[in-house]
Amino acid sequence: MEGIDDIEHIASDHDQLISVISKLDKTQHIIEPTRNEPTNINSEFNLIKKSNKSILKNVSNILSDTASHVEITKKLLKSQEESKVLSKPLEKPQVERIKRATGYLETKKKVGRWDPIVARSRTVDQVFFPLKKAENRLQPTQAFISKLKTKSELERELEAVDPPDIVQEDDEEEQVYPMSYEEMVEHRQHLAKIRAQESYRAAKAKRQSKIKSKKYHRILKKDRLKQQLKEFEELQKSNPEEALKKLEALEKSRALERHTLRHKNTGKWAKNKMIRAKYDKEARQEIAEQLAVSRSLTQKTQDPDSSDDDAEDNVVIPDIALAQDPMNPWMLKQNNKSNVDAEFDFGYKKYLKGKMFKHKEDSGSEDEAEKNNDTTKACSDAGLNTLKNKIEKIFNNKNESAQIDKNIEEDNSTEQNQSDLNQPIQNNSNITKNKIVETEQKQKENKMKKNKETLNNNKKSLKTKLVATSYWTVEPVENKDKKYTEGVGGAFDNLERNISKQVNMKLDIFRRKLRKLEQLTASKSKKKSKRIGNSESYIPENNLEYLKLATQNKKAIIDEQLLETTSKTIPTEETISDDIMSRAMLHNKIPAEEPTNSNIDPSKFIEVKPKFLNSEISRQETELDVLDDEQVVPKVNIEEVFEEDDVVASFRQEKEDEANKDKPEDINLTLPGWGAWGGKGVKAPKRKRNRFITKFAPKTPRRDENKGDVIIKEYKDLKLDAHKVKELPYPFNSVKEFEASLRAPLGNTFIPETAHRKLTRPNVVTMAGAIIEPMDEDELLQKKNRTFKSSNVIQFINKDG
Amino acid sequence: MKVPRQKNQNNPAHKNVKSEQENTNESQKKKVKRYFELDKPDSKTDTKTDEVKVYNVKVTPRILWNQKQKDQKRQFLKNEYGNTFSQRKQKKKYPGKAPIDPKRLEKHSRGEGLQGIGVRNPIHKLKLQKKEKLYQKALEQAARSEILLTEDQGYVELEDEDSNTRAINQQIIARNIDIAAATKIFELNLDFGPYRAKYSRNGRYLLLGSKKGHLASFDWVTKKLNFEINVMESIHDISWLHIETMVAAAQKDWLYIYDNTGTELHCVKTISKVLKMEFLPYHFLLASVNEYGFLSWLDISIGEIAGECNSRAGRPKAMTHNPYNATLCLGDSKGVVSLWAPTVKEPLAKILCHKTPVSAISVDNRGLYMATSGVDRSIKIWDIRNLDGPLQHYKVWSPPVDLDFSQKDMLAVGFNETVEIYSNCCTQTVSKPYLRHKMAKTVNNFKFCPFEDVLGIGTDRGFTSIIVPGSGEPNFDALESNPFQTKKQRKEAEVKALLEKIPAELITLNPFEVTEVDVPTMKDIIDSKKKLLHVKPKKVDMTPRRKNKGQTHIARKKIIKDAARRDHIEKLKAASALYEKDEQKEKPVRKQSFGVLDRFVSNPTKSKK
Q: What residue spans do the WD repeats cover (chain B) (predicted)?
């Protein structure tokens, strides 16, 4: 044991020594891994890569020295030769690469089995799903019966002992439903009704929210206001605390309004408007409205609890002089247009005021002065506020009267109140009415002055009246308008007037003439009745007569010509042959001339010889022939009579024109006299002609080029082109092939029914209700799939991915 | 036995190749010699192999290759199966369906099919090829189903060969046919002036309209009257609409539409003073031309005018429509026939047919031939499909009043009081009529009844119906027009026809133009794509499937020209020979001239006189 310890000690010492020595030499040494503990797993990295072959040789060399060991050495060497040393395992990446490669090949082979199936299913006309057809053949009777078994005796006995649980189907069926069927139906109907109503309401709300009409919204607001007022009243009766809360909320909103700068004249918009207000009436109005809104919002509601002094302070004394100033927007309180935002508050205020009256009346201890005050206040309000406000006030008054009904004692005072209230309104309205009358009178005067004031202008003025904020302002503005119209529209008016005058003049002249004519005709008819031969009265009729006669005359002329011209008879068979001969003689020179003309005119050579048909000879002609014997009646060759030589010439001309129409003309850029003598009759040299006259390439020959007296129009029919295919669809890249694919009809009126069905059957057919399962490997065994051999398609599919 | 034969067959071919090669060598030196100009080598081979017929085939490498392949295959099969293979092939017990006559196939053919060259994607290519097979099957089936056309065309058979068919009048015909058919010969004597008659599309109903306002429609087979009214206005033309319950009449001022009870359905005031009317059944267009030459197409399915234009040809003389492409043919007083489509304001084509006013036009059912007649007492047959010169030019004794083609291309020509029917007069030049019918009434118009061998003639004193054996199509397509249509079928057919209505824009000279690709526009699109950066335009083969068939082949024309010239020269020779004969007769008299002393020479001819 000691020895071992010593050895270990020495070894460690030795190691230390070596390490120290190696440290002296400053180069780094890779230390050979040493195995400290025996392990089962040998790391390949720890193996010492030294071949043991050399060692063996060394050993053998040593052994070969002694003769006795020769045998052993030989054996050793032999065994060395014979023994197969396991080759070094490949490195991991290499191994994996090989694995991957082989794996790929394997899977490729495996997946490749499906290639023909995929290719076939892609190219097949019709695919039927599910792929596996259920066996629908009937089983033979024996086979079917063999499956049925009667119960054995043991089974029967067992059943008798322990009967199988009877499934309680009845219990399941008798489920307890919360409702009967009728109830359920009813319930559902009810729900449906509710839903429908809801949807109607939603639709209505949506529709209403989309309405842009201001008038409509105004009316809506008014309605809402009334509703709220009513509610508020009721609330006051039923729950005064709530009402108070509402009032407080109102007060709060007022405070907020006072706090903010909304509806003031300090905003950017207001400033802009103010700049414009000088010239623009509408801008002025808008600013006035805005200010009115702010004022109404910030006006303190007169709390019944607050002191009278405050109320007195708040009393606005109407400054009539200011209010009447049309140019002062700040004083424009009377606006017809109510501000939309402020309306609710307005209404409340009015209500509150009414409330105040009521309160005082209720209190019973009322001063005449106070009453007066109130009335004056009311008066002022009435005088200043708009027409709508008046209406509202009336509404208030009504309220009052409702209250008054309770207190019969103070009837008189209230009546007075009412009268007091009503009077200023009436006054006001009276004033306005007067004004209207005045303006109308003025207008009438204007009309009297200016004879032709157009109706349109009047209408415009009326419109402006309606738009204007007050009647006082109407006049000057309208005057301005009139000036404008006089300035610009006047010119038009004048023009119109002139034209109308001229037209009228002319019309007058015509009328006069007409009258004269009527008179004349009347007189003529009279004269006619008296004297028939009156020349003057017969002029038009004579004209007609003359025309008629002319046509008749012409006909007569034709007849004469008919008689004069022809001496030819209808060609008989003898004359036909003669004709041919004579024609042959006539054409004698033509063939000699033709070869020089390279352009072939078929009309010159493909003349179909007329064949004389053995047709019926009309009776008239035979009659004529009969006549012939006795007297010489000049026979007319009708074709010669109707024939027009220029028909052919004009047709050919037409054809030429048609052909020349779309021929591009040569562009001549020669400058006559440039670098050479110019003048009349001097032709440009050939070199110049070649250089400066650009000739277009001849167009493709026309269809009618070699066709004689036929004109075929060459045109592009845009309407038809809309129906034509302009781009080739996908699989085609040849026009010819695409057109070929379209050539055959598919309809059953064109081809036999069976063929039609085959050509139009669907690509994919699925059986209704059947589960479509993915393909399984049975498909590989099917013959149709195995025999599919279209290497092109398979290759393409493989390449595609 | 077979091996030596093959060798025999092969040998001459090889020899021919050799000779060809020699020829090519020669051609370098001399002129090019064609195969038919070779004499010597052929004669040699002929002498060697008397038993085997030798055809001279211009041998190309392809043919050689094919031959080689065949030989190899044959050899292979022989090695595999021995001689049994060929025997087995002969001994096929069930040979399958009967072969189809290639002519019939050709008749039903829709032209060249898909080659599969212009489709790059093999999947689509295979699909299209499959479809192509289906087309081929459909074609075969169509050809096979001709067996269902059981009825034969009528004809006239004479006992003695020499006599003419034109001598056969209606009485003789009536005597020789069955009683039911004989009822189709009848006459209606009506009092209201010249009548126009038109048959409905299925040939069951007849519409009569007279100049004096008499309008009647009836089932002419059972003689059951639908309605009979007098419109108290002149009727210039009448027309059936798409079904027999609607009728259009061009009256004095406006166009009226009546139903089958004579109730006025519409008065179309947008179309006035109509002279001629035609109904285009597939487009639902009622085409009309008025006194002033205004053409208008009324779409009767929606009641709108589909097209209007002024023909600028004055009062129309004749009008008809081409059933092939639905264009209107309008004949004017200058002898020009112009073709019109509703969407084009100018004539699609103009043909100068006669130098005198055109009196009648008719186009045959297939749209191949057009017959025109002029006041110049001539009838011309034109190739209307190619718009080419007169195929036939006939001269007659009096100007024809009306022309009409039957379904089987018989041409009826109406003269003053006679109607003559010419059969097969378009492709051949005929000299005498097939039938002739004389009447004591003047002919106004006439129409062949579809699917019947009947010609209805509207005359000045009523209507005459005559039998023309073989004029009508014996087999009808019930899906197309059914003479035995029931009310329900009619209703269904109407709906179907409306669904299949062809828009008016598609009326062009070439009815297949819609199926063609708009190549110029496509080119423009491709060119514009080429200009874009980084966009690779598709390579497209632009050659269209159909060549312009309308274009005349100059080579063909040259041949005709040469033939004409040769003919002409021969005639000239004959004429000159005749002339020379005459001259020779005169010449000896002239030759012996003695100048001033001629007076002393005794003249035998004169002395004779």
A: 351-386
Candidates B118, B126, B552; nearest CB to A732: B118
Is A772 part of any domain?
A: no
User: Is B133 part of any domain?
Assistant: no
> Torsions phi, psi of A274, nearest 5?
-65, -35
Residue B426 near residue B409 (C-beta atoms within 8 A) = yes
167-226 in A: which are within 8 Å (CB) of B? Answer: none
A719 touches chain B (CB under 8 A): yes
Candidates A603, A615, A719; nearest CB to B343? A719
Number of domains in chain B: 3
The domain boundary, picked from B467, B493, B520, lies at B467
Q: What is the pLDDT of chain A when averaged over all its residues?
A: 68
Q: Point out the domain boundary residue: B418, B434, B467.
A: B467
Domain that holds residue B45: 2-111+139-144
Return the SS3 of A761: coil
Question: How many angstroms separate the CA atoms of A470 and A333, rounded?
Answer: 10
Give the per-residue pLDDT at A792. 86
Structure tokens at B286: 């009622």
Examine the domain organization and report whether B224 and B354 are in the same domain. Answer: yes
Structural domains of chain A, count:
3
Q: Are residues B89 and B192 in the same domain?
A: no
Quick one: tokens of A701? 């020959």
Q: Domain of A258? A: 218-441
> A412 and A558 in one domain?
no
Which tokens belong to A77?
A: 């060497």
Cβ separation A743–B111 shorter than 8 A: yes
Mark which of A409, A425, A441 sits at the end of a domain. Answer: A441
CA distance B532 to B538: 13
| DSSP tag of A787 | S
**Gap from A790 CA to chain B (nearest CA, Å):** 9
Evaluate whether B329 touches B370 at the Cβ level (below 8 Å): yes
B311 and B410 both lie in a single domain: yes
HSE-CB for B196 with a 13 A CA cutoff = 23
Interface test with A, best of B376, B417, B558 (most A CBs within 10 A): B376
Beta bridge partners of B363: B370
Residue A328 lies in a domain: yes
- Give per-residue pLDDT as tens, B334-345: 999 999 999 999
Q: How far is A128 from chain B (nearest CA, A)?
A: 17
pLDDT at A455 over 50: no
| Contact between chains at A739 and B378 (C-beta distance less than 8 A) | no
> B301: phi > 0 → left, psi -120 to 50 → alpha, else beta; which?
alpha
More confident residue, B314 or A407: B314
pLDDT digits (tens, 9 = 90+) for B266-294: 999 999 999 999 999 999 999 999 999 99
Q: In 3-state terms, what secondary structure has residue B126?
A: helix
Candidates A610, A709, A713; nearest CB to B393: A610
Written as one string, the DSSP assignment of A314-338 is HPPPP-HHHHH-TT-GGG----SSP
**CA–CA min distance B564, chain A (Å):** 7
- A766's enclosing H/E stretch is strand A764-766
Residues B212 and B312 in one domain: yes
**B124 is a domain residue:** no
> In the sheet that B328-331 helps form, which strands lie side by side, from edge to edge?
A710-712, B349-352, B336-340, B328-331, B318-321
Show which of A625, A643, A661 is a domain's final residue.
Answer: A643
Query: How far is Cα B383 from Cα B322, in angstroms, rounded to an integer?
Result: 12
CA A275, distance to chain mean position in Å, is 44
CATH assignment at residue B235: 2.130.10.10
Chain B contact present for A127, CB below 8 A: no
Question: Above pLDDT 90, what percent of chain B?
Answer: 59
What distance in Å separates residue B193's CA from the closest CA in chain A? 21
Residues B257 and B333 in one domain: yes
In a domain, A652, yes or no: no
